[in-house]
Amino acid sequence: MQVASYTGPLCPLCYSRPQAAVLRPEGDGAKRLLLCSFCLTEWNFRRVVCPACAEENKDKLPRYSAADFPYVRVEACDTCKTYLKSVDLSVHGLAVPVVDEIAAAPLDLWAVDHGYSKIEPNLVNC
User: Fold this and answer.
1) Could you read off the pLDDT of 7-31 as tens digits, one per residue?
2) Which one of 7, 26, 101, 103 is most buried, by most CB atoms within 10 A?
3) C-alpha span between 64 and 60 (Å, rounded)
4) Residue 4 has what DSSP assignment?
5) CB-based contacts of 109: which residues, under 8 Å, 6+ apart?
């Protein structure tokens, strides 16, 4: 389920934190949605804002990726040291965000090794 008009950091239906972000194709680019960790609702969220602390300085919001997962990346925040993974459907349109976010568990290990904590764990607690 997708909620179009809401843009807050918590799920508009159950008020849970996001498990992941999803980039969906729109126009010449992609829009960012957050994916609820509990009810799997998606809602719009600005691309260059930390959903944990609302940091907006792009220099403090690094993104990391790995060749093994070209359409999944770590979106980190150097202010609050949190991260979430985003699944880019504009790169791989057949990806399933919940499944691919879990399949990219090596990115979680990398992020934790670099001092980041995930905003909310996924179904397999990583």
Assistant:
1) 789 999 999 999 999 999 998 889 9
2) 101
3) 13
4) S
5) 126
